[in-house]
Write a structure and sequence with these properties.
With 322 residues, the protein is an alpha+beta fold. 28% of the residues lie in helices and 29% in strands. The chain contains eight helices and 17 strands. Strands 1, 2, 7, 8, 9, 10, 16 and 17 form an eight-stranded mixed sheet that branches. The protein has a five-stranded antiparallel sheet with strand order 12-13-14-11-15. Strands 3-4 form a two-stranded antiparallel sheet. The chain binds flavin-adenine dinucleotide. The site of flavin-adenine dinucleotide (FAD) has 38 residues, from helix 1, helix 4, strand 11, strand 15 and helix 8.
Length: 322
């Protein structure tokens, strides 16, 4: 089935959905394509069954801030809708999605036309339209917005918008190995969160202590960029064992045997954002880019980047009709 729309957005993470929400609220027809099986992007949550119980792990972003007044307003709405809550253990300004980190993205997506499991493979200009091939389907749109990690944007935009692709190519993202560990009993004498700027484990948290979670004791461990690079090509089971040992050594707790142990490798976890970056919209070709790599490497930065790109599109539309 082919699809034509007014605005097509590739990438349904926080940046893409922030842009989609703002644009759809003006009555524009917006379709979002995302290759993921479900909502989240890097605000992912993974559900697993451990000893007959459903347990959810936030293996990507751990919490987010809401400092910008517009974003605060959005987060207040999420809190009211029951999809976000404060998490004081991570700091006075920390929020999490509830019951999983992906809940906010899921909530945004529920009001939009998002096509999951659809990977944009190739895009090109076709007369005055943009044409996106996804394998089985072709989508066309007057306006095309790309909100995917820099390294993936560089590939996707190489032929269609080499100037944007060059910008994306210059960004380097740090990888992150994330370990998910479930235990039959609580890990005693351990704080709910652990951070280090120098050790092999940069962050660990008792996932089950976040608000709105249920189920057995669960932990998420993030390796530092250096440790992640060191282990980058090892099998995930081996990485999981190494990082669990790293955690116990770091917090000085006797090792416990997990009931569940898994790992996920984020190749492009957090980008190094250059000063002066911002979302870009080309008004001649009606193509734009957004994402955390064009603002700051955080959930809030992704939302702000998407919103700013939507504002640029709306400004152009207003100018062209006046
Ligand atoms: C391990 C880890 C820890 C983090 N910790 C924190 C934290 O504690 N606090 C914080 O604020 N931030 C944290 N972040 C960063 C935060 O998750 C990101 O900044 C934010 O989620 C980025 O949103 P985005 O929309 O720019 O990108 P993404 O969330 O990456 O969304 C991009 C979307 O594009 C889709 N996509 C990619 N290519 C294609 C294609 N060809 N076709 C269709 N779809 C495509 C992907 O499936 C994805 O859903 C962390 C990230 C990671 C990975």
């Amino acid at each position: 089935m082919d699809g034509h729309t007014d605005i097509l957005i590739i990438g349904g993470g926080m940046a893409g959905l922030s842009a989609a929400t703002a644009l759809a609220s003006t009555g524009a027809r917006v379709i979002v394509l995302d290759k993921g099986r479900g909502p989240g992007g890097r605000m992912a949550a993974r559900r697993v069954e451990i000893a007959g119980e459903q347990v959810s792990f936030d293996h990507g972003a751990q919490f987010f801030t809401a400092r910008d007044p517009d974003f605060r307003e959005i987060v207040a709405g999420w809190e009211q809708a029951g999809v976000a809550a404060r998490w004081p253990a991570a700091g006075d300004e920390a929020w999490v999605g509830t019951p999983g980190m992906n809940a906010c993205v899921k909530h945004m997506a529920s009001a939009l036309d998002v096509r999951w499991n659809v990977r944009a493979a190739h895009l090109r200009r076709d007369g005055t339209l943009w044409r996106v091939e996804t394998g089985e389907q072709v989508f066309t749109a007057a306006t095309m917005l790309v909100a995917v990690p820099a390294e993936q944007a560089a590939v996707l935009l190489a032929d269609a918008a080499p100037d944007f692709a060059a910008r994306a190519t210059s960004v380097i993202s740090a990888p992150c190995w994330a370990v998910m560990a479930g235990f039959a009993e609580a890990i005693a004498d351990a704080p709910d969160t652990f951070r280090s700027d120098t050790g092999p484990v940069s962050w660990a948290a008792r996932n089950s202590a976040k608000p709105g979670r249920s189920g057995a004791e669960s932990w998420v461990i993030h390796a530092s960029p250096a440790r992640s690079r060191e282990l980058i090509d090892l099998p995930k089971d081996e990485v999981a064992r190494i990082l669990l040992a790293d955690l116990f050594a770091a917090i000085g707790t006797a090792p416990a045997v997990p009931q569940h142990l898994d790992a996920h490798r984020w190749l492009y976890a957090q980008p190094e954002v250059r000063k002066g970056e911002g979302p870009v919209y080309d008004t001649d070709r009606n193509i734009g880019i957004a994402g955390d790599w064009l603002h700051s490497p955080r959930v809030e930065g992704a939302w702000l980047s998407g919103r700013a790109l939507a504002d640029a599109v709306l400004q152009e539309r207003l100018a062209s009709t006046s």
